[in-house]
Write a structure and sequence with these properties.
Blueprint (H helix, E strand, L loop, with lengths): L1 E6 L5 E5 L4 H10 L3 E3 L1 E5 L5 H13 L2 E6 L2 E5 L7 E2 L2 H5 L5 H10 L1 E5 L12 H9 L3 E5 L2 E5 L7 E3 L5 H11 L5 E5 L5 H12 L3 E3 L5 E5 L4 E2 L2 E3 L4 H13 L3 E5 L7 H9 L3 E4 L3 E5 L8 E3 L11 H8 L5 E5 L8 H8 L3 E5 L2 E5 L8 E3 L3 H13 L3 E5 L2 H4 L5 H7 L3 E6 L1
Parallel strand pairs: 2-17, 3-15, 4-16, 7-8, 11-12, 20-21, 24-25
Antiparallel strand pairs: 1-25, 1-26, 4-6, 5-6, 8-10, 9-10, 12-14, 13-14, 17-19, 18-19, 21-23, 22-23
The structure holds uridine-diphosphate-N-acetylglucosamine.
Uridine-diphosphate-N-acetylglucosamine binds next to α1, α5 and α6.
């Protein structure tokens, strides 16, 4: 078991390069099992624990996976011969559910353990199941695993009851090899939805409308290997924007798509931070006291739930009262108890946190309770007075590539040690 030791109070300065988007990569990698011929060479893959899990799952299915360099994977799925994804790795992460759609599309059958992931809510997969059934699959859940099978998949119209990133991506994957036209309505519009569609189209799929409310997928007969580079990670970039603002630093965040950061940038500006956008960078500086702000999470282009915890950490040191409302997940305030240990004044009223800003947090011994909560605690610790220990690092390792190294190069006093 390892933990982070952070001595706070140092303004971060310099520049940092953002890696590929976790939530795009973790859908693209399972989708490579649909390449019947040729190899997929995927660049800009973040070197994170969720990706390591996916590599092991791909190998267990019969894919040949080669790491070409730190952030490039070559996957040959020609000889996939196992349709059972039932390992600890599958249970450990959320995105393993994309193997259901990918194996169903190519082999018309799959058995995949129910997914894990951050404990931020009930996280049902009923909309995924509704989509698979609408395409013609029979779906059963037995002994903690999802079984799907179909004689054939046939395109149809599907209106999702909730806007779901996972269901939109999974059904888009499954429908690429269905017969005829599938029309998905009330879909998610996150940048990673568009990235997955672009990847599938590069494999030979025919998908239009990703990034809008309606996605149209014309089924094709086969998909083949291709070269593809994953988009930059919106949430990793946003996390460094918060770290820069919290420490009153001056940080240029490179390899980003500023448009994807608009809702984060807007809220930071409202708080008084200066955010300068370049073509593929944003520079965040803060030279005065931060103002309070009201945040409400929503599907893209709204404020991302995956940035809620980090933003809440920032509001704890604003001058006044902020509110943070979580509308996407019902159990996403676990970081509040940990932030309180650092002196934060936060009350919770149902799905709203009311944060009384104070001049400074103080160091404490805290635990990451999920991936983004962990990132939020690191941001809080960087600005706090004194020493903070952050435990349960496996949550942070799931989604941030070289988090500690990047912060050290920005001047942070942060080390990773054995507990
Ligand atoms: C994905 C992201 C996660 C992010 C979330 C919202 C991955 C691997 N994870 O999670 O980082 O926080 O999107 O941007 O990409 N829901 C249902 N039924 C379903 C599916 C979802 O009721 O079948 C509900 C969920 O409980 C939640 C809401 O819909 O309240 C949104 O969930 P969804 O967008 O599906 O999130 P995930 O795909 O789990």
């Amino acid at each position: 078991m390892e933990k982070l030791i952070i001595n706070g109070g140092i303004p971060l300065k310099g520049s940092v390069d953002i890696n590929g988007a976790k939530n795009a990569a973790v859908a693209i990698l399972p989708a490579t099992v649909m390449a019947m011929t040729g190899k997929c060479v995927i660049e800009n893959v973040p070197d994170i624990e969720d990706v390591h899990c996916l590599q092991r799952i791909l190998k267990s299915l019969g894919c040949a996976v080669n790491k070409i360099n730190e952030n490039t994977l070559e996957i040959d799925s020609t000889d996939v011969n196992n349709f059972n994804a039932c390992t600890d790795d599958v249970r450990r992460m959320r995105a393993s559910y994309y193997f259901i759609g990918a194996l169903l599309a190519r082999f018309k059958k799959a058995r995949v353990e129910l997914p894990g992931g951050c404990p931020i809510g009930v996280r049902p997969i009923d909309q995924h199941i509704k989509g698979f059934e609408a395409l013609g699959a029979e779906v059963t859940i037995e002994h903690g695993a999802v079984n799907v099978k179909a004689d054939k998949l046939v395109g149809t119209n599907i209106f999702f009851d909730v806007v779901s990133v996972g269901a939109t991506m999974n059904i888009m994957i499954a429908a690429t090899l269905a017969e005829g036209l599938t029309v998905l309505e009330n879909v998610a519009k996150e940048p990673h939805i568009v990235d997955l569609a672009n990847f599938l189209n590069t494999m030979g799929a025919d998908i239009k409308g990703a990034g809008t409310d309606v996605i149209k997928i014309n089924g094709v007969k086969e998909l083949k290997g291709c070269n593809y580079s994953v988009i930059p990670d919106q949430i990793e970039a946003g996390t460094f924007m918060i770290a820069a603002a919290a420490t009153k630093g001056d940080v240029t965040i490179n390899n980003v798509i500023p448009k994807h950061l608009e809702s984060i940038t807007a809220k930071l500006k409202e708080m008084g931070a200066i955010v300068d956008e370049g073509d593929d960078s944003v520079r965040v500086t803060v030279d005065k006291k931060l103002r309070p702000v009201n945040i409400k999470t929503a599907p893209y282009p709204g404020f991302p739930t995956d940035m809620q915890a980090q933003f809440m950490a920032l509001t704890t040191i604003a001058e006044g009262t902020s509110t943070v409302t979580e509308t996407v997940f019902e159990n996403r305030f676990m970081h509040v108890a940990e932030l309180r240990k650092m002196g934060a004044h936060i009350d919770i009223d149902n799905r709203q946190a009311i944060v009384e800003g104070m001049p400074r947090l103080h160091g404490a011994v805290v635990n990451a309770t999920d991936l983004r909560a962990g990132a939020a605690l690191v941001c809080a610790a960087l600005t706090a007075e004194g020493r903070t220990e952050v435990g349960r690092l496996h949550h942070i390792d799931r989604g941030y590539d070289d988090f500690v190294g990047k912060l050290q190069r920005l001047g942070a006093d942060i080390v990773r040690v054995d507990e």
